[in-house]
Amino acid sequence: MHQVIESLAAVCSERRAAVTRILGDQAFLLGAGHSRPRNYAANTFRFRAASHFLFLTGLSSPGAHLLISGQHARIFVHPDGPDHALWHGPSPSMSQLATSLGCSVEPMSALPNALQNISHVMMLPAADRRACDEMSSLLGRKVTPGVISTHDLPLAQAMIQARLCHDQAALAQMTAAAELTTRAFAAGMAATAPGKLEWSVRAAMEYPLTACGTVPAYNPIVSVHGEVLHNDRSDNTMRDGDLLLVDFGAESTGGWACDVTRTWPVSGTFSPTQRDLYDVVLAAQRAAIDAVTPGVRYRDVHLQACRTIADGLCQLGILKGDVDGLVEDGVHALFFPHGVGHLLGLDVHDMEDLGDLAGYAPGRSRSEQFGLGYLRLDRDLQPGMVVTIEPGFYQVPAILQNPALTHGAADRLNTDVLERFSDVRGIRLEDDILVTDQGHQNLTQSIPIDPDDIQRAVQQGRVPPTGRSVWKWSLARCPAWPQDPPAADQPLA
Question: How many helices (H) and strands (E) does the chain have?
């Protein structure tokens, strides 16, 4: 089955040209990857092409490959078998694909001969082992998921340069994904009530996406145990007094990600201690977003969030001492142990398959300090970049009960005061921020985040307007997925 993102031929052609301008006549090969079996070969997960391939082609076709040599781009696909139409319906022919994609399309059987005529071919590995084994066979060298060889480094750097700042077509897709994510959060807040399973909230949030023919951009986190940073379980019963942390984002039809986190009270009302800590995290998020502007180092945005967290915890009496000293010594990381965010694009952690090559500017490397070492991004911000801003507060037993991690705090951590905040396991607040020429634009600002607005959304959502179901109220209609890329000077909606 070959699915093409409509009207992207010109955009993808320009993206390919941008990469070839960097690489010159150097040839490279990218694979789309393969469908992955769920439990037996014929029962597969929904296919989604590897991001580098998708970025340059707009094609989602299992097993396809893109070969570029100089100015010549060729796509190789597996022809449909004789019984394909019986089981899966008709697919476009190769000539139809060529017209849609704006470059030649040939059968996979022609790829080995095409490679024989090129002496030096770079590649980037897809995420699945089968695709890497296929690439190994084609190129005659070992290809391993996530491993970028010195041989392939120029291609990785060229793709980073091409994908780091988004074009208008990409931003239009991300804006549409943000609109659908907004509807999902409205549905999730409305579906929250004591006595229900977390799964019921997740189901409510995925409904608007399914109804529009798309899926979450990543495995959602919907949990009253917000202290588990990448919690993949949603089987707890929500109870009065719990905070529900929801990390959720839609993927656009073109494969572009949204990534948002909100935390709200299951009862519809924050307790005084929950409200105090929520306000600390919100202040940190606002301070970090305010710091986003071209030329600013993202590490400094992170440290701004850290200082605000530390200052807020000092005002509550949980921490004591000089704020800068607390951050310099990493004491704040006992409660805010991760980085303030990451790149966002076709991947929810954009280009993380390339490791720190994408996230860290040349000459920069990860800190060895607990907390700061988890920072995923350390680049100077540029217009067109989209980053997440997602500070948090967590009480993680594995951290707070580990003497090796807490010894540096010494008497600067007031455990007696901390005990009064035992009804807070985890709070995280996250938005998607576009760096603009003048500063920044919050792509997800329509999702409630002010604590009073959060409470209203949860409380009022339980009585849908005009008696309609929560799903119909939150869905309305699918967002207008962009078909034609906007003009360069056309503002985003």
Answer: 18, 17
Number of neighbouring beta carbons within 10 Å of residue 183: 26
The tens digit of pLDDT for each residue in 384-437 reads: 999 999 999 999 999 999 999 999 999 999 999 999 999 999 999 999 999 999
pLDDT tens digit sequence for 166-200:
999 999 999 999 999 999 999 999 999 999 999 99
At 13, the amino acid letter reads S
* Residues with Cβ within 8 Å of residue 124, at least 6 apart in sequence: 28, 30, 52, 148, 152, 155, 156, 159, 353, 354
- Domains of the chain, CATH where assigned: 3-163 (3.40.350.10), 168-475 (3.90.230.10)
CA distance 175 to 56: 20
CA distance 188 to 185: 5
β 440-442/431-435 pair status: antiparallel
Cα–Cα distance for residue pair 334/371, rounded to 1 Å:
8
User: Measured between alpha carbons, how far apart are the two ends of the chain, in Å?
Assistant: 33
Cβ contact 386:344 at 8 Å: yes
Residues 71-128 have pLDDT tens digits of 899 999 998 888 888 888 888 889 999 988 989 999 999 999 999 989 899 999 988 8
> Model's pTM, two decimal places?
0.93
DSSP structure string for 338-397: S-S--B-SSSSSTTGGGTHHHHB-TT-----STTGGG---B-B--TT-EEEE--EEE--H
Cβ-proximal residues to 294 (8 Å cutoff; 6+ apart), any chain: 381, 382, 383, 435, 436, 437, 439
**pLDDT score at 487:** 44
Q: Degrees (nearest 5) of the Cα angle 336, 337, 338? A: 100
Place of tokens 């796509």: 75
Residue of 459, 434, 463 whose CA lies nearest to 448 = 459
Nearest to 264 by CA among 463, 473, 428, 75: 428
Tokens 């807040």 -> residue: 189
Q: Are 228 and 211 in contact (CB under 8 A)?
A: no
